[in-house]
Amino acid sequence: MPLVQIKGIGGYLTPDEKRELISKVTEAVLSVEGEGLRQATWVIVEDVQPGAWGVGGQAFTDADLRRLAGR
Q1: How many domains does the chain have?
Q2: Which residues of the chain carry a pLDDT beneath 70?
Q3: pTM for this one?
Q4: Helix (H), strand (E), coil (C) string for 12-64
Q5: 58-60 and 53-55: which strand pairing?
Q6: Residue 53 CB partners (closer than 8 Å, separation 6+)
Q7: Which CATH number do you get for residue 34?
Q8: Residue whose C-alpha is closest to residue 7's, from 60, 44, 56
């Protein structure tokens, strides 16, 4: 049973974006492992509290991500 865990900073992705991410990641897994595993493929999107994620020794927030992404 494939399991994909994705962690990201909470508040950055909308519920619709998370659904799209889950769908596309599932399709990527199935393209390698086979369509027969669709019902057994799990994708978990976990939110980490903004400021509880560090990059380069600095706390990172959803606002920092938006700035980097130009959003």
Answers
A1: 1
A2: none
A3: 0.88
A4: CCCHHHHHHHHHHHHHHHHHHHCHHHHHHCEEEEEEECCCCEEECCEEECHHH
A5: antiparallel
A6: 9, 59, 60, 61
A7: 3.30.429.10
A8: 44
